[in-house]
Specification:
The chain is mainly β. The protein has no helices and 20 strands. It has 2 domains: 111 residues, Sandwich (Immunoglobulin-like); 86 residues, Immunoglobulin-like (Sandwich). Strands 2-11-10-5-6-7 form a 6-stranded mixed sheet, with no helix packed on it. It comes from Xenopus tropicalis (Western clawed frog).
């Protein structure tokens, strides 16, 4: 049986280990170990005939993967991915095969990038803008007034930059209150916010 973890969370730009092992323990030195997403080939990483084979590796993983073999004789062979990018997120398959055994398992890689502190970019007449960039996965932006009530934006745009990280910009008509807060969060509960007052500006990040 091939075993992994249901999911792994990695910070954008960091290195991550995707676990994979055999149960019960057995020597996997002479087995084929193939990591792929979403197709069998081209693959993320291939170990075959006792060595790594990069012939048909997906270009986005070139020079960034390593199958750790310190415990391969015990059937433990995690995959290291270096310098994780937003495109690396998704489901990975660990497939193991020999003349006597074969099986596969999956692990979901969730990439997390915490964006820049939101900023009030400009105030035009009665309109206030808030923007933040460098997020992954896609963030949500929320406006609240002094009493904590949500303020509906008059405009909101979300787009990706050259690194496939999300940027968000939103605008509201200035409510009849001296204080408004712009909060940006993503699905992994990362949050940053800024509060703006008519007589000044104060920033609080969470």
């Amino acid at each position: 049986m091939v075993i992994s973890a249901p999911s792994v969370v990695a910070t954008f730009g960091s290195d991550v280990l995707l676990p994979c092992r055999l149960a019960p323990e057995m020597n996997a030195e002479n087995m084929e170990i193939r990591w792929f997403k979403p197709m069998y080939q081209p693959y993320v990483h291939l170990y075959i005939n006792g060595k790594d084979d990069y012939t048909a590796q997906m270009p986005q993983f070139a020079n960034r993967t390593e199958l750790l073999k310190e415990n391969i004789t015990r059937g433990i062979f995690p995959l290291m991915i270096r310098n994780v990018t937003a495109q690396d997120s998704g489901k990975y398959y660990c497939f193991v095969e020999s003349t006597e055994h074969h099986g596969r398992t999956t692990v979901q890689l969730q990439v997390n990038a915490v964006g820049s502190p939101p900023k009030i970019s400009s105030v035009t007449y009665d309109t206030v803008y808030c923007e933040s960039d460098g997020w992954y996965p896609e963030p949500q932006l929320t406006w609240t007034d002094t009493k904590g009530n949500k303020v509906i934006p008059s405009m909101e745009k979300v787009f990706k930059d050259e690194k496939s990280l999300y940027c968000i910009i939103s605008a509201i008509y200035l409510p009849p209150t001296s204080n408004i807060t712009c909060s940006v969060t993503n699905s992994l509960n990362r949050r940053k916010e800024i509060s703006w007052e008519t007589r000044g500006e104060s920033v609080r990040m969470v």
